[in-house]
Specification:
Elements: E1 4-9, H1 15-24, E2 29-34, H2 37-46, E3 53-57, E4 59-61, E5 65-72, E6 91-100, H3 101-108, E7 114-119, H4 125-135, E8 141-146, H5 158-167, E9 173-175, H6 199-207, E10 215-221, H7 225-236, E11 243-249, H8 255-261, E12 267-272, H9 280-290, E13 295-298, E14 303-305, H10 309-314, E15 321-329, E16 340-341, H11 353-362, E17 372-373, E18 380-383, H12 384-389, H13 403-413, E19 417-428, H14 449-466, E20 486-491, H15 495-501, E21 507-510, H16 515-521, H17 529-532, E22 533-535, E23 543-548, H18 554-561, H19 563-570, E24 574-578, E25 581-585
Parallel strand pairs: 1-2, 1-7, 2-3, 4-6, 7-8, 8-9, 10-11, 10-13, 11-12, 15-16, 15-19, 20-21, 20-23, 21-22
Antiparallel strand pairs: 5-6, 13-18, 14-19, 15-18, 17-19, 23-25, 24-25
Helix pairs in contact: 4-5
Length: about 600
Amino acid sequence: MEKKIFIDCGAHKGQSIIKARKKYGDDIIIYAFEAVPYLAYSLQEYYKYDANINVFWNIVGDKEENVDFHIPLNGVSNGNSIYPRWHSDNTYIQKIPSIDLSNWIRKNFNKDDYLILKLDIEGAEYSTLSKMIDDGTVDYINEFHGEWHEKKISNIDVDHKNKVNSFFKNRRFHIWEAEWLDESNPGMISFPEYLNNKKSKISNEWALVNPFQKITFIIPTRNNLEFLKLAYDSIRRLDTNHEILILNDYSIDGTKEWIDSKDDKNLIAYHNEGPERIGIVGMFDKGISMANTDVILAFHSDMVASPNLDKNILKYLKRGSVVSATRVEPPLHPDGPEKIIKNFGIEVDEFSYDDFCKWIRTDYIPKHDLKITEGIFAPWCMYKEDFLSIGGHDNLFSPQSKEDSDLFNRFLLNGYEVIQSWDALVYHFTSRGSRFNKYVGGDAGKNSNEWLTQNQRSTRNFIRKWGHFVKHTPLMKPIVPPKYNIGIVLENSNYQLLSILEPWCDRIYVDSDFESYIQREQKATSYDLTKRITSIQTPTEEIVIHINGNSFNNNDYNVIQNISDIINDSGAIGQFELGNLKLDIREMNEYQNTLIYV
């Protein structure tokens, strides 16, 4: 069955969306454009779980530029237009990004698609259609619908009007009359008169929903030039000329020379001259501090941006939120509910950007039948100010590994909303920075020794800091159990037991030599182990766990690994026994919120 696509220019409060579904069926794909900020935002919110409806905040016209849009102070929906209609004292003018409808249609569709175009754009239909006639985009359209507003246009648009009127002498233009529905009707959105005495507040608030807002893509890279080229090219295919900030971490594969060869005023580079690498932790924070835009996006050099990646992230982004794109990956890691396994190539020479885009346009179906879910992972996007307000990455995890899980816990505890956009896609070759990096002994699907060593080190530091392994929902929303003040008293201790148990508490008391352990382990952590390990004495921690090393077994270790949840679930003060463990719970103060800022 032929799939129909409805392009709704001037979506207003949703009447045309409702009419289009009644006329063409619920499975019609709808792209709706609305310039009035509140209406556009409200429609996005209403339809954000509907995979067939995509709403954009844009003026529709014949150019890509920021355009003065006239909004009456006595209401937000009264034939608002790019043409002045009201006395200036009663009009609020806001700069709103315009799309070039011709270019947008030609980039996203072909002549085999059945396109239904509805234009109700308050006079701008003449210049828009005039350009479509000149460049042949009218040949893409199977049905024309809309309204004419010749009384609104300026004198310079008369020639456009004459050309359009001539064109439609022998072609059908259907007058589109969408029923004026009550706001309680399903599919309609309501709005207040929000501009009176609130102009600056609303102006700033809706600027955040600008799908053409400039982003800085932060890309650390090390000996990944073949992947980096793909990442760069894919970002440059996006409609907006975003800032790209590449952080070259002592690459020896020609990365610096390639960057230097680019004639791109929106490309910024930082080069670590070595010989030691800085790592993802330092490089991401360096790049974010250098970013010239309000919005930053943490991108990996082994990722490829899909068309409209930026717009499909920005439409959900607001201050106090972090928006992640959905990863499409080859079968190098197990499938998960938060990603798509689809093999477009494990290596660069196997990858076809055109095939990837065709699959997105014709075959891609979001999991869970939702446009957004709660979760966070790379690539993630947020306001630079929000990132800096918690201090950035924790150097405890330098150069890499578990730095993202630590950061995401802190985002959540600081009240940030974590959103996964299922219509913002990247192709992710996966783990080419260190884990599968061939320059340090890795390969596709093969862990490098560098990564194995650092991952073990960072896992132990994560436990020291948070008191648990990394936890998250199936859709990758962080789970942060309470952080308690715990001391372990270990009798009949030895080196092995000390190594196993030390990360799981704030201080461990032992009756054996611990200097050799400190000497070996101290170089793997920034925690001062001389303050974390001491000879047996009266413990001062709020929760004390007594362990006899001679009887300690795997069941006891399982309890230790889940001790935060166990204590939280019990909710009880007092002395208890769990297997061979003796617990003395004196207080149950929680300290996880003290870990937000670094």
